[in-house]
Amino acid sequence: MLNSRLMAIDYGERKVGIAISDPLHIIASPYKTIDRRETPDYISEIRNIIEEKNIFKIIVGYPLTMLGKESQQTKLVVDFVNLLKKEFDIKILKYDERLSSKQAERYIREQNIKVGKNKEKVDQISASIILEQYMSISK
Predict the structure, then answer these.
(1) pLDDT of residue 27
(2) Residue ranges of domains in the chain
(3) Is 30 left (phi over 0), alpha (psi -120 to 50) or beta?
C-alpha cells in the first residue's frame, strides 16, 4: 500500500509502547509510549496515530511464556486485540513477542542509558523489535 505504514504495539497494563515503520516497510522506529494512567482514553491516542501516520496494519506483541503457553498477560493482550478489532477497520495481528522487552533493556544498557529512568523507551523499543521481527519474516 503506497505511503502506508505498519504499527507495532507492546501492550502493558500501565504503558503502551508504539513503533511505526517507514512507508517502504523497511525500517521500524520507536515512536511513542502512552501511559494509560495519564491517558485513560489511550484508544483515541492510537486512533490519532493511525490517521496521522496512515497505518494500514497493526501488529500486537503476543506474550507467551518461554514454553509457548498463555499467561495472565496473554489474556489481557487478547482482550486488547479484540477491542482494537472493534474500534478500527484495519488488519490487526498478534505476533510472538517473547524476549522483546529483555532485548530492549539490553539495547538501552548497551547505550549506557539507565533502564529505570527510561522505562518508556523500553516499551517503544520493544514495539520496534516486534515490528522489525514481523517485517523480516513477512517479506
Answers:
(1) 96
(2) 5-137
(3) beta
Torsion over CA: 139, 11, 92, 124 (sign):
negative
Q: How far apart are CA 139 and CA 130, in angstroms?
A: 15
Query: Quick one: cell of 16?
Result: 503502551
- Locate cell 522506529: which residue? 29
Q: 28-35 and 15-21 as β-strands: parallel, antiparallel, unpaired?
A: antiparallel
CATH of 5-137, one of 3.30.70.2860, 3.40.50.300, 3.40.190.10, 3.30.420.140: 3.30.420.140
Residues 17-71: tens digit of each pLDDT = 999 999 999 999 999 999 999 999 999 999 999 999 999 999 999 998 777 788 8
Distances (CA, A) of 22 to 1, 77, 111, 113: 12, 25, 23, 26
Question: Any idea of the CA torsion for 84, 86, 90, 95, to the nearest 10 degrees?
Answer: 40
DSSP H or E segment with residue 126: helix 119-137
State the DSSP H helix or E strand holding residue 114, giving kind and residue range, or none if neither: none
Q: Which residues pair with 30 in a beta bridge?
A: 19
The model carries a pTM of 0.88
